What does this fold into?
Amino acid sequence: MLLKRCLILARGGRIFNRVIEMCATCNYRFDMSKMIQLRHVLDALHRQLKARAALSGLPVSEYLIREVRKLAERPTPDEMQERLRRRDPY
It folds into this structure.
């Protein structure tokens, strides 16, 4: 769908209609991947992660995405407690 926005500009008493195609601008934000930035990473930790990424044959960013995905798929302790609480007793 082509999204257009009309601007009316007044210059010297004359009115100009301008059509600006906003499709690319509006949809660009949907195509952008999200970024997570970690600060204050100790040198030793960075070296360890870099070494593990190299052993896996991945760049550090891809290695971290893989590891974060694994972490996100695991239930948190609170989620696990809730699951256990809802289970039927034997």
